[in-house]
Give the backbone structure.
Amino acid sequence: MAARSGGATKAKSAIPQVAWNAVRPAPVVLVSGPEDVLADRAIGMLRDALRAEDPALEVSDLDAAGYPRGELLTLASPSLFGESRLIRVSGVEHASDDFLLDALAYLEMPADGTTLVLRHRSGVRGKKLLDAIRAGTGGGIEVPCAELKRDADKQDFAQAEFRAAGRRIAPGALRALVAAFSDDLAELSAACRQLIADAAGDIDERTVARYYGGRVETTAFTVADAAIAGRRGEALVALRHALDSGADPVPIVGAFAMKIRTMAKVHGAGRGGTAGSLGLAPWQVDRARRDLAGWDDEGLARVIEALAATDAAVKGAERDPVFALERLVGLIAARGRA
């Protein structure tokens, strides 16, 4: 399955919308959206595909913001030896008037053997040009590169990196890698490439831990996230690792309590609850709604009662706080169903 681009183009389009990792040659290729890592990867893959067809491919780069009139038409004019051409234009969202005029004229009669790539991140500058491309003028395609916000989209991206290299990565290793680099797609991409280059064989959790142990530390929230997602075995392994690493049971219960309280608050407010009315950040509300999949009132109530009992247990009410934690993990992974 191709990696998701993280969102669709808002404007209606008469031309094909192509995923970043399924890019193909066309007379005009519009690479749109703010995710530069995906855009760079798509443009690089397109260059490699064109060079495989013609090793003598002539590559030229233009900056649309500082563009002088006539340069595009000069670069696209037929050469003495007829080499194929790739013209990459950056910063179309800041394009000069001269570039927009030349690009619109070029669309009416694209040069044979030339691929024109236009990189437009966002904004309304160049809208007439984008509308013309999306209407089919010039025979182009569009590669939407929306920002990847969901962990699932980032996992698809990382999975595609390994698949393209003919390598396999275990699901747990994939989740750990994405969790370690979830804030920066460029760092996630670099980590994937390092593992592909340096690690032999299939990539498992131990491989990821060996290379990125400092980033893939088990925390209380790692345990809580796995349990709430229903991954009981993974949560128990993470719990044992956390405890073996010196984690205290009390803050682990606290992490569970924080997440479950947020889920209960969002669940009680229904679909009409807003971040402002709940006293939460928008991302917290979105995350809680995702976490609530498969939960019901009875399950949440049962887990809240179990949290209170486990909190007492790890503070001395029971002889075996680890058993109490494992019991809680099992109940949460079952979404409160005893």
Observations:
- The longest helix spans residues 249-269.
- Residues 151-212 form one domain.
- The chain has three domains: 20-144, 151-212, 220-333.
- The beta strands are 28-32, 58-63, 85-90, 114-120, 141-144.
